[in-house]
């Protein structure tokens, strides 16, 4: 498996966020994405997950994406997003518990071509959450708990590439280390504001925008 | 005191209507007195009621007498067009093909439920007998347009409010329908609440308008009740169908061919 993105450009409301970006990842490699707030790091992840519909003058995207030599059209929109999984920074308001979201996704996996994946309860433990957090309502979880529970839901499905938007932003240092440990040797495009974290997790750093921000 | 004739309604003269209008007039005077600024609106609404209903009475006399299928269908179609325009206006939110989608939803819902009732339940001859079809269509449209507009409003509003949750499901590999099912369910519920409420209090708190009219018109109350039940079922069925239709259309319209939620 090889993930390739070439000639990536995106502009939002007439403002160019990035132009001509290239990302190449072999399995198990991680690239860190850095840049000032508002530079377009999250927009890049949305671009790679193919979540934004172009809108002339408002939102324009171009570039070529490949996973295993196949483009998103070849994979189909659903399968592409299952393989190249976007994990947003904040968990949106959701009904039910992490277990419900996982069940819904596992159900989708059965309908689709993919297998169900890893045991989520083991992931929950490895991420430092209590087993009962898995069945607690999203609204009862703290920001950091919800962020890790969402990561467990996504990881359980074993996507080939993870698009991570500051996955440790709401976590204390030990919890952040647990996340880093669990993601070690997975294929990730990892948005972070911390140069220390970038050095720990990634072999390469991709800067977005002109200014290289200080820590 | 005269006994109420059982074979027909008490005739109402224009002079008596003028007397009844004093109820509205009194409200208008209160509004002027308290400077509520509603006097003008009350006047316009009252005038519109008189004009529109009198005109309707005149038109219906001709339609009932003419017994022409094309005329009945043309009027029915016109009513559906007006209802769909009003439904979209009330929803207050739109997307490019919203008018067409509201029209098709209302047309299908009204046509199927009405034909079922006139053709199979009442077995009216011919099935398009205007004395049945047009008043029933009016009741069906009046109610299902409320359902359609509420469902549409909730659906489109939720797509904005719950964008992150929908995109989270999409990002997890859900298709457009799985990703928007909770949103669609909420929209459908919003559209059906008024008719469900009306059905549960019918006859206890309120005597529905049509039954009141029939009883005043001299119909035996048992028969009027059965007609009202029929109409309630008809309205509920059409409202559910129309709301489901417009919500499904809206879900389809708000995603592109790569199953991305449009802005």
How is this structure best described in words?
The complex is a heterodimer of chains A (215) and B (263). Chain A is α/β, with parallel strands linked by helices and 215 residues long. Chain A is 34% helix and 24% strand. Chain A has eight helices and eight strands; from the N terminus they run E-E-E-H-E-H-H-E-H-H-H-E-H-E-H-E. Chain A has helices at residues 41-49, 72-75, 77-83, 98-111, 120-126, 143-156, 173-183, 195-201, and strands spanning 3-12, 15-25, 30-34, 59-67, 84-87, 161-165, 188-191, 204-207. Chain A has a five-stranded parallel beta sheet with strand order 5-6-7-3-8, sandwiched between helices. A three-stranded antiparallel beta sheet of chain A has the order 2-1-4, covered by helices on one side. In chain A, strand 1 (3-12) and strand 2 form a beta hairpin. In chain A, helix 4 runs parallel beside helix 6 (143-156) and helix 5 packs across helix 6 (143-156). The longest helix of chain A is centred in the middle third of the chain and has 14 residues, at 98-111. Chain A starts with a strand and ends in an 8-residue tail after the last strand. Chain B is mainly alpha-helical. Mean pLDDT of chain B is 89; it is low at 1-6. The longest helix of chain B has 33 residues, at 221-253. Chain B contains nine helices and no strands. Chain B has helices at 14-33, 39-66, 69-91, 98-121, 130-161, 163-171, 176-201, 209-216, 221-253. The A-B interface holds A 49-53, 55, 58-59, 72, 77-79, 81-82, 85-88, 90-95, 101, 104-105, 108-109, 112, 114, 150, 153-154, 157 and B 162, 164-165, 167-175, 178, 182, 256, 258-263.
């Amino acid at each position: 498996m090889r993930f390739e993105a070439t000639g990536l450009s995106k502009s939002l409301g007439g403002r160019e966020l990035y132009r001509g970006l290239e990302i190449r990842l072999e399995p198990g490699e991680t690239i860190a994405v850095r840049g000032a707030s508002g530079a377009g790091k999250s927009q890049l992840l949305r671009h790679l997950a193919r979540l934004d519909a172009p809108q002339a003058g408002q939102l324009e995207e171009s570039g070529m994406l490949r996973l295993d030599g196949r483009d998103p059209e070849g994979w189909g929109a659903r399968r592409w997003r299952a393989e190249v999984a976007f994990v947003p920074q904040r968990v949106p308001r959701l009904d039910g518990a992490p277990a419900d979201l996982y069940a819904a996704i596992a159900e989708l996996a059965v309908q689709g071509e993919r297998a169900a994946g890893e045991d989520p309860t083991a992931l929950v433990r490895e991420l430092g959450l209590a087993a009962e957090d898995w069945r607690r309502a999203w609204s009862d979880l703290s920001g950091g708990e919800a962020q890790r529970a969402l990561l467990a839901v996504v990881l359980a499905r074993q996507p080939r590439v993870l698009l991570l938007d500051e996955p440790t932003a709401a976590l204390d240092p030990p919890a952040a280390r647990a996340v880093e440990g669990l993601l070690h040797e997975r294929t990730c495009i990892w948005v972070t504001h911390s140069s220390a974290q970038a050095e720990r997790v990634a072999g390469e750093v991709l800067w977005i925008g002109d200014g290289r921000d200080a820590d | 005191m005269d006994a109420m004739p059982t074979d027909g309604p008490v005739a109402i003269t224009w002079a008596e209507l003028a007397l009844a209008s004093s109820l509205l007039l009194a409200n208008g005077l209160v509004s002027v007195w308290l400077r509520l600024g509603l006097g003008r609106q009350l006047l316009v609404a009252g005038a519109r009621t008189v004009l529109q209903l009198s005109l309707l009475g005149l038109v219906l006399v001709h339609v009932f007498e003419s017994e022409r299928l094309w005329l009945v269908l043309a009027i029915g179609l016109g009513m559906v067009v007006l209802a769909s325009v009003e439904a979209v206006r009330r929803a207050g939110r739109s997307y490019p093909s919203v008018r067409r989608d509201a029209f098709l939803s209302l047309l299908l819902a009204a046509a199927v439920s009405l034909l079922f009732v006139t053709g199979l339940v009442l077995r009216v001859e011919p099935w398009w007998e205007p004395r049945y079809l047009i008043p029933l269509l009016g009741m069906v449209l009046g109610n299902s347009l409320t359902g359609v507009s509420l469902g549409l409003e909730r659906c489109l509003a939720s797509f904005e409010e719950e964008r992150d949750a929908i995109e989270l499901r999409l990002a997890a590999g859900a298709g457009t329908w799985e990703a928007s099912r909770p949103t669609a369910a909420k929209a459908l519920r919003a559209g059906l609440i008024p008719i469900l409420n009306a059905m549960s209090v019918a006859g206890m708190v309120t005597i529905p308008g049509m039954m009141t009219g029939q009883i005043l018109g001299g119909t035996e109350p048992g028969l009027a009740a059965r007609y009202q039940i029929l109409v309630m079922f008809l309205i509920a069925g059409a409202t559910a169908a129309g709301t489901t239709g417009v919500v499904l259309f809206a879900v389809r319209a708000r995603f592109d061919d790569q199953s991305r939620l449009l802005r």
